Amino acid sequence: MGTVEQLCIAPENGEPMVHQQSVDVVEGGLVGDRYLRGTGYYSPYDVCEVTLIEAEAVKTIHEEFGIDLGDGRHRRNVVTHGVVLHDLLESTVRIGSAELRGTRPRPPCAHVEEVAGENGVASALGEGRGGICARVVEPGTITVGDSIDVVEADPRTVGAAIAERLGSVDDQSE
After folding, report:
1. How far from 53 is each of 74, 128, 155, 164, CA to CA, in Å?
2. How many CB atoms within 10 Å of residue 43?
């Protein structure tokens, strides 16, 4: 489906994101990341265990706004390629040996712009480019290059598939 292009963690609130080749995923988040440690800016009120952003969105931001967030200033943990993250909301995905469930969009905030040190970052991350939050379902390890595979589709997709199958059964019985 898609792949992991980049992995980033920040040990403490406000510290630069540190690129990783591989990260251990445990209940509550990523080993070494500020939110697992409880030191993220929004801890404990608005915590995303794992955040994901599309590499395509990072590229669009660079092209349209002239802001290069390839260094991790987007403040997201997993940079994906080849997958529309909003399609993964309420779905469970396997990335490496870990399983994550997309929980909600991750809109930008004024804090991301402050930490990035560049005007316009928050608005550039708007319009659905801010990525999503995910909850850890199954601990494991994620490595750059790992594939992203749907383990369990969101309930709307599953429901639509069931309705379609039932519709075709009704059509055959007529």
Report:
1. 8, 10, 22, 32
2. 14
- Answer for the pair 40, 34: CB distance below 8 angstroms, yes or no: yes
The CA distances from residue 55 to 52, 122, 139, in Å, are: 10, 17, 24
Q: Which domain holds residue 140?
A: 2-173
What does the alpha-carbon distance between residue 30 and residue 23 come to, in Å, rounded to a whole number?
Answer: 7
CA nearest to 16, candidates 115, 131, 109, 113 = 115
Residues in the chain where the model's pLDDT stays below 70: 41-45, 156-162, 168-174
User: 132 is written with which tokens?
Assistant: 């999503």
Per-residue pLDDT tens over the stretch 96-113: 999 999 999 998 777 787
Total count of domains within the chain? 1
Q: What is the gyration radius of the CA atoms in the chain, in angstroms?
A: 17
> 13: domain CATH number?
2.40.33.20
Task: State the alpha helices, DSSP H only, in the chain.
Answer: 34-37, 55-65, 110-116, 121-124, 155-173
